[in-house]
Amino acid sequence: MNQKTLYVYKAVSFPYKWVKCPPMLDNIRLVDTTPFMVNDRIFALTYKLNESKKLKDELILLEFDGEQFRLSTQGVISTDISVARPGGKFFYIEDKLFRVSQDCKSGYGAALNIIEVKKELESKYEEKIIKKISPNEVKISKNKTAKGIHTYNFSDKFEVIDLKYYKRSFIRLFYKFLKLK
To answer: Residue 113: exposed, middle, or buried by beta-carbon count in 10 A (0-12, 13-18, 19+)?
Structure first.
């Protein structure tokens, strides 16, 4: 489904009942929208997929005004495909704010970045890459090597890593052959 609309759902009776709020942004392709909080203010980063090949995809900062998310006055944060696309939730360690992003420069899921976000968002959004994680650094099985890594999230009890694996397939080989023609 390609609705080109960003909605937020409000918990009426958490976690059992949710209400769909009016659209936040309309007629725009957004993916991987990730809310976060800084100094009791709510923000979100979202990734805008531009339909024109002439335009780069964009990482956009949104601010919550108490009713809905609106485009921040800072607008586009990045068009750099190696850091722009969100890849997990924001988190704090020792009072520092971090986000996870996907490095899609050499392909979707080529690596993940752990990025420190400077918390002075009112004046200017700034961030710095702290660590890059490639798929082959994540060992889940001795017999398999991941070909991509898309997402990293964690809680007190769980850690979730979204990895991409390929398995040999005659059908995949057949489709590759068809695309060459």
So the answer is: buried
Q: CB neighbours of 124 closer than 8 A, spacing ≥ 6?
A: 74
C-alpha closest to that of 3 among 24, 37, 180: 24
Query: With the CA atoms of 76, 29, 26 and 118 taken in that order, what torsion angle do they form, in degrees rounded to the nearest 10?
Result: -30
Main-chain dihedrals φ then ψ at residue 178, nearest 5 degrees: -65, -35
Q: Which amino acid makes up residue 98?
A: F
Q: Residue 62 and residue 85: Cα distance in Å, rounded?
A: 15
Q: What is the pLDDT of residues 118-163, one digit of tens each?
A: 877 777 889 999 999 999 888 877 777 788 899 999 999 999 999 8
